[in-house]
Amino acid sequence: MLDEYGRSLGKSARRYVAFLCRGYLALSFLGLQLAGCTSPLKLPRYEAQGVGAYVNRQVQGDVRVAVQPITDAEEQRKYFGVVLTDAGVLPVLIVVEDHSSSRRFLIRDDLIVMRAKSTNQVLAKPMLQDMSDAPYAEPMHKVSAATSTSAVAAGDVALLAGNTVAAAGAFVFALPAVLMAVGVAKNAESAAIIQNNLFDNTLFTKTVMPNKSISGFAYFKAADGKLDFARDDGKVLDDLILRLQAADMDSETRYDFEFRM
After folding, report:
1. Which of the four pLDDT bands, split at 50, 70 and 90, describes residue 226?
2. Helix 73-80 to helix 188-201 angle, to the nearest 10 degrees?
3. Of the candidates 136, 150, 115, 103, which has an alpha carbon nearest to the alpha carbon of residue 11?
4. What are phi and psi of 111, to 5 degrees?
Protein backbone atom coordinates (compact mmCIF):
# COMPACT_ATOMS: atom_id res chain seq x y z
CA MET A 1 0.00 0.00 0.00
CA LEU A 2 2.83 2.38 0.84
CA ASP A 3 4.55 1.73 -2.48
CA GLU A 4 1.31 2.65 -4.23
CA TYR A 5 1.13 5.77 -2.09
CA GLY A 6 4.70 6.63 -3.02
CA ARG A 7 3.92 6.36 -6.73
CA SER A 8 1.01 8.74 -6.29
CA LEU A 9 3.34 11.43 -5.02
CA GLY A 10 4.24 12.27 -8.62
CA LYS A 11 0.75 13.65 -9.07
CA SER A 12 1.13 15.76 -5.95
CA ALA A 13 4.54 16.99 -7.06
CA ARG A 14 3.07 18.25 -10.31
CA ARG A 15 0.54 20.21 -8.28
CA TYR A 16 3.35 21.77 -6.25
CA VAL A 17 5.04 23.00 -9.42
CA ALA A 18 1.79 24.18 -10.97
CA PHE A 19 0.94 26.16 -7.89
CA LEU A 20 4.35 27.76 -7.64
CA CYS A 21 4.15 28.77 -11.29
CA ARG A 22 0.90 30.58 -10.65
CA GLY A 23 2.69 32.69 -8.08
CA TYR A 24 -0.18 33.03 -5.63
CA LEU A 25 0.63 34.27 -2.17
CA ALA A 26 -1.27 35.10 0.97
CA LEU A 27 0.44 37.09 3.68
CA SER A 28 -1.75 38.18 6.60
CA PHE A 29 -0.39 40.97 8.74
CA LEU A 30 3.02 40.46 7.16
CA GLY A 31 2.85 42.98 4.33
CA LEU A 32 4.07 45.81 6.50
CA GLN A 33 7.34 43.94 7.03
CA LEU A 34 8.05 44.14 3.30
CA ALA A 35 7.69 47.91 3.11
CA GLY A 36 10.80 49.84 2.21
CA CYS A 37 12.61 47.00 0.43
CA THR A 38 14.57 48.63 -2.38
CA SER A 39 16.91 45.75 -3.30
CA PRO A 40 16.15 42.10 -4.05
CA LEU A 41 15.57 40.09 -0.91
CA LYS A 42 18.18 37.40 -0.30
CA LEU A 43 17.29 34.63 2.09
CA PRO A 44 19.96 32.12 3.18
CA ARG A 45 19.02 28.47 3.28
CA TYR A 46 18.35 27.11 6.75
CA GLU A 47 20.97 24.46 7.38
CA ALA A 48 19.60 21.83 9.75
CA GLN A 49 22.00 19.97 12.00
CA GLY A 50 21.96 16.27 12.83
CA VAL A 51 19.29 14.97 15.20
CA GLY A 52 21.85 14.64 18.01
CA ALA A 53 22.39 18.41 18.04
CA TYR A 54 18.84 19.11 19.26
CA VAL A 55 17.54 18.75 22.81
CA ASN A 56 14.02 17.73 21.78
CA ARG A 57 14.73 14.40 20.06
CA GLN A 58 13.53 10.81 20.14
CA VAL A 59 14.61 7.41 18.81
CA GLN A 60 12.34 4.54 17.78
CA GLY A 61 13.85 1.56 16.02
CA ASP A 62 16.07 2.86 13.23
CA VAL A 63 14.34 6.24 13.10
CA ARG A 64 15.60 9.33 14.89
CA VAL A 65 13.56 12.54 14.98
CA ALA A 66 14.22 16.00 16.38
CA VAL A 67 11.96 19.06 16.46
CA GLN A 68 12.82 22.69 17.15
CA PRO A 69 10.34 25.62 17.16
CA ILE A 70 11.85 28.80 15.74
CA THR A 71 10.74 31.54 18.11
CA ASP A 72 13.41 34.20 17.66
CA ALA A 73 12.12 37.11 15.58
CA GLU A 74 15.51 37.93 14.05
CA GLU A 75 16.10 34.32 13.08
CA GLN A 76 12.69 34.21 11.38
CA ARG A 77 13.35 37.44 9.54
CA LYS A 78 16.75 36.13 8.40
CA TYR A 79 15.53 32.79 7.04
CA PHE A 80 11.87 33.46 6.12
CA GLY A 81 11.99 37.15 5.22
CA VAL A 82 9.15 37.90 7.65
CA VAL A 83 8.39 37.35 11.32
CA LEU A 84 5.78 34.60 11.10
CA THR A 85 5.04 34.67 14.83
CA ASP A 86 3.80 38.26 14.44
CA ALA A 87 0.88 36.65 12.57
CA GLY A 88 0.51 33.88 15.15
CA VAL A 89 2.22 31.31 12.92
CA LEU A 90 4.80 29.06 14.60
CA PRO A 91 7.47 27.52 12.33
CA VAL A 92 8.81 24.19 13.62
CA LEU A 93 11.93 22.56 12.23
CA ILE A 94 11.70 18.77 11.86
CA VAL A 95 14.74 16.56 11.25
CA VAL A 96 14.38 12.83 10.52
CA GLU A 97 17.23 10.32 10.18
CA ASP A 98 17.07 6.74 8.93
CA HIS A 99 19.82 4.70 10.60
CA SER A 100 18.94 1.40 8.91
CA SER A 101 20.97 -0.18 6.13
CA SER A 102 18.04 -1.14 3.92
CA ARG A 103 14.68 0.14 5.23
CA ARG A 104 12.83 3.15 3.85
CA PHE A 105 10.51 5.29 5.96
CA LEU A 106 7.69 7.49 4.73
CA ILE A 107 7.00 10.79 6.49
CA ARG A 108 3.56 12.09 5.52
CA ASP A 109 2.96 15.79 5.87
CA ASP A 110 -0.73 15.28 6.67
CA LEU A 111 0.30 13.17 9.67
CA ILE A 112 2.40 15.98 11.11
CA VAL A 113 -0.08 17.38 13.60
CA MET A 114 0.08 19.83 16.47
CA ARG A 115 -2.57 20.22 19.16
CA ALA A 116 -3.07 22.32 22.26
CA LYS A 117 -3.20 20.30 25.47
CA SER A 118 -5.49 22.77 27.22
CA THR A 119 -8.24 22.54 24.60
CA ASN A 120 -7.28 19.34 22.75
CA GLN A 121 -7.70 21.40 19.60
CA VAL A 122 -5.72 20.56 16.47
CA LEU A 123 -3.92 23.63 15.21
CA ALA A 124 -4.49 24.71 11.64
CA LYS A 125 -1.58 24.36 9.24
CA PRO A 126 -1.58 27.51 7.11
CA MET A 127 0.20 25.64 4.34
CA LEU A 128 -1.82 22.59 3.34
CA GLN A 129 -2.21 20.15 0.50
CA ASP A 130 -5.72 19.56 -0.78
CA MET A 131 -6.76 16.81 1.63
CA SER A 132 -9.76 15.83 -0.47
CA ASP A 133 -7.50 14.21 -3.05
CA ALA A 134 -6.51 10.57 -2.72
CA PRO A 135 -4.44 9.26 -1.09
CA TYR A 136 -4.80 11.94 1.57
CA ALA A 137 -8.42 11.03 2.14
CA GLU A 138 -7.39 7.52 3.15
CA PRO A 139 -7.24 7.20 6.95
CA MET A 140 -3.92 5.67 8.00
CA HIS A 141 -3.82 6.92 11.53
CA LYS A 142 -6.05 8.40 14.21
CA VAL A 143 -4.70 11.87 13.64
CA SER A 144 -5.83 11.84 10.01
CA ALA A 145 -9.42 12.55 10.99
CA ALA A 146 -8.36 15.28 13.36
CA THR A 147 -6.13 16.86 10.76
CA SER A 148 -8.86 16.90 8.14
CA THR A 149 -10.99 19.16 10.33
CA SER A 150 -8.47 21.92 9.82
CA ALA A 151 -7.99 21.32 6.13
CA VAL A 152 -9.23 23.85 3.62
CA ALA A 153 -10.44 22.59 0.28
CA ALA A 154 -8.68 23.93 -2.77
CA GLY A 155 -10.39 26.95 -4.24
CA ASP A 156 -12.10 27.95 -1.00
CA VAL A 157 -9.53 30.55 -0.08
CA ALA A 158 -8.48 33.65 -1.93
CA LEU A 159 -4.74 34.27 -2.10
CA LEU A 160 -2.96 37.50 -2.72
CA ALA A 161 -0.11 38.24 -5.11
CA GLY A 162 0.62 41.93 -4.86
CA ASN A 163 -2.80 43.51 -5.13
CA THR A 164 -4.31 40.61 -7.08
CA VAL A 165 -6.77 38.23 -5.45
CA ALA A 166 -6.91 34.75 -6.98
CA ALA A 167 -8.30 31.35 -6.10
CA ALA A 168 -5.98 28.79 -4.54
CA GLY A 169 -4.74 25.73 -6.37
CA ALA A 170 -3.53 22.55 -4.69
CA PHE A 171 -2.11 24.51 -1.75
CA VAL A 172 -3.39 27.23 0.46
CA PHE A 173 -1.62 29.65 2.72
CA ALA A 174 -4.63 30.82 4.67
CA LEU A 175 -4.50 32.78 7.90
CA PRO A 176 -7.79 33.31 9.77
CA ALA A 177 -7.71 37.05 9.41
CA VAL A 178 -8.48 39.68 6.80
CA LEU A 179 -6.11 39.13 3.89
CA MET A 180 -3.96 42.09 3.07
CA ALA A 181 -2.21 42.99 -0.17
CA VAL A 182 1.55 43.07 0.12
CA GLY A 183 1.62 46.67 -1.07
CA VAL A 184 3.23 48.59 -3.90
CA ALA A 185 4.82 47.07 -6.97
CA LYS A 186 8.36 47.34 -5.61
CA ASN A 187 7.45 44.70 -3.00
CA ALA A 188 6.18 42.14 -5.51
CA GLU A 189 9.61 40.63 -6.03
CA SER A 190 10.18 40.25 -2.29
CA ALA A 191 6.75 38.67 -1.88
CA ALA A 192 7.54 36.11 -4.56
CA ILE A 193 10.89 35.31 -2.95
CA ILE A 194 9.23 34.84 0.44
CA GLN A 195 6.55 32.63 -1.08
CA ASN A 196 9.04 30.39 -2.86
CA ASN A 197 11.21 30.22 0.23
CA LEU A 198 8.31 29.11 2.44
CA PHE A 199 7.49 26.27 0.05
CA ASP A 200 11.12 25.31 -0.42
CA ASN A 201 11.54 25.02 3.36
CA THR A 202 8.32 23.10 3.99
CA LEU A 203 8.58 19.43 4.94
CA PHE A 204 6.14 17.90 2.50
CA THR A 205 5.65 14.14 2.25
CA LYS A 206 9.04 12.51 1.76
CA THR A 207 10.75 9.14 1.90
CA VAL A 208 13.81 8.83 4.12
CA MET A 209 16.26 6.48 2.45
CA PRO A 210 18.63 4.15 4.34
CA ASN A 211 21.42 6.04 6.15
CA LYS A 212 19.99 9.35 4.94
CA SER A 213 18.15 12.25 6.56
CA ILE A 214 15.51 14.81 5.65
CA SER A 215 14.56 18.12 7.22
CA GLY A 216 12.09 20.92 6.75
CA PHE A 217 9.53 23.11 8.42
CA ALA A 218 5.91 22.67 9.42
CA TYR A 219 3.92 25.85 10.08
CA PHE A 220 1.11 26.00 12.65
CA LYS A 221 -1.42 28.74 13.44
CA ALA A 222 -0.82 28.90 17.19
CA ALA A 223 -2.55 32.19 18.02
CA ASP A 224 -5.07 34.64 16.61
CA GLY A 225 -2.64 37.49 17.11
CA LYS A 226 1.05 37.97 17.72
CA LEU A 227 2.95 35.27 19.58
CA ASP A 228 4.92 37.05 22.29
CA PHE A 229 7.37 34.56 23.76
CA ALA A 230 9.07 37.20 25.88
CA ARG A 231 5.88 37.81 27.86
CA ASP A 232 4.20 34.42 28.10
CA ASP A 233 7.02 32.70 30.09
CA GLY A 234 6.88 29.69 27.78
CA LYS A 235 3.17 29.04 28.34
CA VAL A 236 2.38 28.90 24.63
CA LEU A 237 5.02 26.28 23.88
CA ASP A 238 4.27 24.30 27.05
CA ASP A 239 0.70 23.85 25.84
CA LEU A 240 1.66 22.43 22.44
CA ILE A 241 2.22 18.80 21.41
CA LEU A 242 3.51 17.79 17.99
CA ARG A 243 2.90 14.33 16.56
CA LEU A 244 4.27 12.69 13.44
CA GLN A 245 4.54 9.20 12.04
CA ALA A 246 7.34 7.30 10.32
CA ALA A 247 6.01 4.36 8.30
CA ASP A 248 8.25 1.52 7.14
CA MET A 249 7.58 1.25 3.41
CA ASP A 250 8.61 -2.40 3.32
CA SER A 251 6.51 -3.65 6.25
CA GLU A 252 3.52 -2.71 8.39
CA THR A 253 5.68 -1.05 11.06
CA ARG A 254 4.63 2.43 12.17
CA TYR A 255 6.53 4.61 14.59
CA ASP A 256 4.45 7.33 16.25
CA PHE A 257 6.41 10.22 17.72
CA GLU A 258 5.04 12.76 20.19
CA PHE A 259 6.94 15.86 21.25
CA ARG A 260 6.18 18.48 23.85
CA MET A 261 7.31 21.85 22.64
Report:
1. confident
2. 100
3. 136
4. -105, 15
